[in-house]
Amino acid sequence: MDLLIHQVLSGLATGGIYASMALALVMIYQATHEINFAQGEMAMFATYLAWALMQAGLPYWATFFLTTIVAFVAGVVIERVVIRPVENAPVLAVVTVFIGLLVIFNSVAGWIFGYTIKPFASPFPEQPFFGNRYMSSHEIGSMGITLVLLAMLFVFFRYTPLGLAMRSAAQNPVSARLVGVRVGWMLALGWGLAAAIGAIAGMMVAPVVFLEPNMMGGVLLYAFAGALLGGIDNPWGAVIGGFIVGVLENVVGVYLGTELKHTVALVLIVGVLVLKPSGLFGKTHVSRV
């Protein structure tokens, strides 16, 4: 029983990281109706930037906030320079752009920083908080940061004029333009927020998986599974899906073997697409023909 409790709690901590990435995927999906396959590589590159800043002597939390800001700006620039010219292009062209971004970020990171695995410092102490024996201090801290981030995003999108404008631009751009919302810039800000959220997820997972150019491949797979499970058009459903995937990954890894951990995500993706494409909390769109 102790082992099960430990794996569930540890899975919730890991699931918080998947939830953050799933939320970033959903935010871009709502804006473009495409999956950003480069989301993980963008987060990885931002994490390398954080590592370089810490190697230069900058304190962790200063690095954390500076990296988040830089990632936000980079996300806005990518949307304006790379994505905007192909927004009306065929789906295959947009997917090709996303895959191109993935390869570019991965290759440039390897070229600049090398492919050697690097340790990434955790801001939390080595000793578990409150003397508990179920979760490490990093697991508790990363889950706390994830929950604070999600709460801030909830308040932002629900109660601030800018957040409401961004929601309207993503959900119904035509109506948003009619009431004076600058849809183009709202979508760019959405890309910036998604990039910032991905950077935070990368900095939280790097102390666990270590830092290398392919570190976010598995994380993106689990995040994608969580987003599909919860609903690719429902941000909070995707968050819940990310937590569920994190728990399932840990429990399956212990009781069925680590070889099946990635299989869990793939089974979830295929199962959801076949049985309930809208996800657990997604909307089913019905149109009259």
UniProtKB/TrEMBL annotation:
It holds the Pfam family BPD_transp_2. It is a multi-pass membrane protein. The chain crosses the membrane at residues 6-28, 60-78, 90-113, 140-162, 183-209, 215-232, 239-258, 264-282. Coiled coil: none annotated. It is found in: Cell membrane. The keyword Cell cycle does not apply. The keyword Transport applies. InterPro entries: ABC_transp_permease, BCAA_transport_permease. Keywords: Amino-acid transport, Cell membrane, Membrane, Transmembrane, Transmembrane helix, Transport. Belongs to the binding-protein-dependent transport system permease family. LivHM subfamily. This is Branched-chain amino acid ABC transporter permease. It comes from Piscinibacter gummiphilus.
